[in-house]
């Protein structure tokens, strides 16, 4: 069984897909991970803000954090091999690494395409929850 491990930068929720305005790249990536799961691939996703202990257990991730302070996040591993760093890979790339074929015309998910019409996310680029008019986390933000 193929296993993907994703080490995300700090975000206010496990996927970053929450709150009133959502980053389209995170929507697309979440849909791609769901697609992988539907193909029988095991997916583990870790968020630095919520799962810091997991980051210290992976030597490659720990060394990258010590070296660049998280600039290399996200880091994506396929079967314990680092396959992407500093970016979210495409569905096509992940399918290739997992030895899967994507049906023609299904390179992306319709839900992800719809998500691209929305902008931003519940967190800013540093992973800090975006402020709302009432203060604290925006409505609907995971945490």
Explain what you see:
By secondary structure, the chain is of the alpha+beta class. The chain has helices at residues 24-38, 52-57, 59-68, 91-98, 110-115, and strands at 3-8, 42-47, 75-78, 81-85. A 4-stranded mixed sheet has the order 2-1-3-4. The chain is globular. Residues 109-143 have low confidence and may be disordered.
Task: Set down the secondary structure blueprint.
Blueprint: E1 3-8, H1 24-38, E2 42-47, H2 52-57, H3 59-68, E3 75-78, E4 81-85, H4 91-98, H5 110-115
Parallel strand pairs: 1-2
Antiparallel strand pairs: 1-3, 3-4
Sum this structure up briefly.
With 143 residues, this protein is α+β, with helices and mostly antiparallel strands. It contains five helices and four strands.
* N-to-C SSE string, H for helix and E for strand: EHEHHEEHH
Question: Mean pLDDT, nearest integer?
Answer: 77
Apparent shape: globular
Helix and strand content put the structural class at alpha+beta
Keywords:
alpha+beta; 31% helix; 4 strands; 143 residues
């Amino acid at each position: 069984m193929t296993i993907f491990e994703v080490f995300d930068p700090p975000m206010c929720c496990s996927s970053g897909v929450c709150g009133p305005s959502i980053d389209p790249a995170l929507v697309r990536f979440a849909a791609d991970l769901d697609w992988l799961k539907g193909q029988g691939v095991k997916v583990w996703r870790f968020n630095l803000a919520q799962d810091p202990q997991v980051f210290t257990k992976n030597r490659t991730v720990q060394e990258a954090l010590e070296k660049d302070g998280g600039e290399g996040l996200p880091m994506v591993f396929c079967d314990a091999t680092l396959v992407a760093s500093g970016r979210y890979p495409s569905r096509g790339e992940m399918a290739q690494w997992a030895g899967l074929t994507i049906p023609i015309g299904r390179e992306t998910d319709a839900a992800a395409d719809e998500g691209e019409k929305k902008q931003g996310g519940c967190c800013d680029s540093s992973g800090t929850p975006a402020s709302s008019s009432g203060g604290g986390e925006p409505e609907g933000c995971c945490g």
